[in-house]
Design brief:
The complex is a heterodimer.
Chain A: E1 3-6, E2 11-14, E3 19-21, E4 23-26, E5 32-38, E6 44-50, E7 56-59, E8 62-65, E9 75-77, E10 86-93, E11 103-104, E12 108-113
Parallel strand pairs in A: 2-12
Antiparallel strand pairs in A: 1-4, 3-9, 5-6, 5-10, 7-8, 8-9, 10-11, 10-12
Chain B: E1 4-7, E2 10-13, E3 19-25, E4 31-38, E5 42-51, E6 54-57, E7 64-66, E8 76-78, E9 87-94, E10 103-104, E11 108-112
Parallel strand pairs in B: 2-11
Antiparallel strand pairs in B: 1-3, 3-8, 4-5, 4-9, 5-6, 7-8, 9-10, 9-11
The chains are: A mainly beta, B mainly beta.
Chain lengths: ~110, ~110
């Protein structure tokens, strides 16, 4: 079956530090890959996505590249802010014609200190 | 656009009581899902629907019922609440034709005492 593995948190950084949150996946075919962000007390929001190998998704300074050869989709940001403190979820969605159900990672908490 | 609207935001139930969590979306999305989120457990799928009149069970369906009579609405019913159902519940939807990811509601925080 499909699975998504994220690095365990919390990840604690100082403001302006470089961020990497690792995500690897197991799936058949070519799934679409997503990062969602959940701020305290809110629902998940789509942060970025990539639908095929070597695609780079980007939004709000965050980036992630779809690496088929390493089955990875690591989230990066060059300079984090206190307002980036949240829980980040990596997810995959099966290719068209397969199951409609996405698979989520368990989430990685990010804490950014001033 | 309102997106995905969940009501209520907070609810306290006594063991054995029943209630319905409401979910409505105004984006004409075919797919809708219910998840529960518990500390350390991530998101777990309860039930999902791929269109009006079609529902199916997810990973943790016991104790919950759903129906989908319209495209817009996907209510989740707790038949006889138990303390193990204390959780945060999220409804989500997406288009059936283009996969731009799911839109989530803001959640319902349920406590069963």
């Amino acid at each position: 079956g499909n699975s998504v593995t994220q690095m365990e948190g919390p990840v604690t950084l100082s403001e302006e530090a470089f961020l990497t949150i690792n995500c690897t996946y197991t799936a058949t075919g070519y799934p679409s890959l997503f990062w969602y962000v959940q701020y305290p007390g809110e629902g998940l929001q789509l942060l970025l996505k990539a639908t095929k190998a070597d695609d780079k998704g980007s939004n709000k300074g965050f980036e992630a590249t779809y690496r088929k050869e390493t089955t990875s989709f690591h989230l990066e940001k060059g300079s984090v802010q206190v307002s980036d403190s949240a829980v980040y979820f990596c997810a995959l969605s099966p290719p068209s014609g397969g199951s409609y159900i996405p698979t989520f990672g368990r989430g990685t908490s990010l804490i950014v200190h001033p | 656009n309102a997106g995905v609207t969940q009501t209520p935001k907070f609810q306290v139930l006594k063991t054995g009581q029943s209630m319905t969590l409401q979910c409505a979306q105004d984006m004409n999305h075919e797919y809708m899902s219910w998840y529960r989120q518990d500390p350390g457990m991530g998101l777990r799928l309860i039930h999902y629907s791929v269109g009006a009149g079609i529902t199916d069970q997810g990973e943790v369906p016991n104790g919950y019922n759903v129906s989908r009579s319209t495209t817009e609405d996907f209510p989740l019913r707790l038949l006889s609440a138990a303390p193990s159902q204390t959780s945060v519940y999220f409804c989500a939807s997406r288009s059936g034709t283009t996969n731009y990811g799911y839109t989530f509601g803001s959640g319902t925080r349920l406590t069963v005492v």
